[in-house]
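Help needed: design a sequence for this.
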């Protein structure tokens, strides 16, 4: 007859539920896994599959009841760690979308917005284009695999324990979130300057020929110039995107106190 003690049962449950919480929290928030276009069932099954693979190698506190107050606090701690890692990666994609919003507004396409199923909100067409480009670059560089690797390594450098968490990681995450606007501005600045020069030229042209209808031709010229500039500038956006994605992986590594492993190559 197969028998086991309550301590053994607690150890088996804890060996799976605590790592799975960190993994599921990261998948729910980090792109591209956390996209709303990915079905919830796929996210859950993927998180459980990854947890099943890495759980036997994860050190967990011995003989601790997962249903006790200490066990619930550990569960919340793992949820917070995983969500923080995913949010750090999400900041990079938000910066790319912000660059698209700035470019779209300068082109005069701020009205050309639609409901984005990935972010569950209103987004411009240029912002959606930049977001898809960032996702393709991230996947082509195996960033999703590196992200999962860093998360798996974090169980050894930031092990599951009942010890209280420090606030240093959250302080670094707040500072990283503040860089969202600077990264978005850096990516869109060449396009903004070129479009600003175009508007200056239109203003001079209108001053020289007052009979021209600025509102009639200005919008068309600005929008056409914006599309031409985006077409010429897309190949050059790969370098800053790659650098920002690499910085995002490094921030996830910092939050998990993971030594540098196979980080995305910086240009």
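Sure. Designed sequence:
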């Amino acid at each position: 007859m197969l028998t086991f003690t309550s301590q053994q049962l607690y150890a088996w449950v804890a060996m799976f539920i605590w790592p799975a919480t960190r993994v599921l929290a990261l998948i729910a928030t980090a792109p591209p896994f956390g996209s709303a276009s990915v079905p919830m069932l796929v996210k859950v099954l993927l998180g459980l599959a990854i947890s099943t693979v890495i759980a036997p190698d994860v050190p967990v506190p011995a003989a601790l009841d997962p249903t006790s107050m200490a066990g619930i606090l550990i569960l919340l701690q793992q949820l917070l760690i995983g969500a923080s890692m995913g949010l750090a990666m999400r900041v990079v994609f938000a910066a790319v979308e912000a660059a698209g919003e700035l470019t779209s507004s300068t082109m005069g396409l701020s009205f050309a917005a639609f409901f984005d199923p990935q972010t569950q909100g209103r987004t411009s067409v240029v912002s959606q284009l930049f977001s898809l480009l960032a996702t393709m670059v991230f996947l082509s560089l195996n960033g999703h695999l590196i992200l999962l690797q860093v998360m798996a390594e974090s169980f050894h450098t930031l092990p599951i324990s009942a010890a209280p968490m420090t606030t240093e990681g959250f302080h670094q995450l707040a500072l990283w979130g503040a860089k969202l606007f600077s990264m978005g501005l850096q990516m869109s600045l060449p396009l903004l300057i070129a479009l600003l020069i175009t508007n200056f030229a239109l203003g001079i042209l209108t001053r020289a020929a007052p009979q021209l209808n600025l509102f009639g031709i200005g919008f068309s010229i600005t929008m056409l110039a914006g599309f031409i500039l985006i077409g010429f500038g897309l190949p050059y956006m790969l370098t800053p995107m790659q650098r920002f994605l690499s910085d995002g992986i490094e921030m996830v590594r910092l939050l998990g106190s993971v030594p540098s492993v196979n980080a995305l190559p910086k240009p």
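Helices lie at 6-29, 40-54, 69-107, 125-140, 143-157, 168-208, 214-255.
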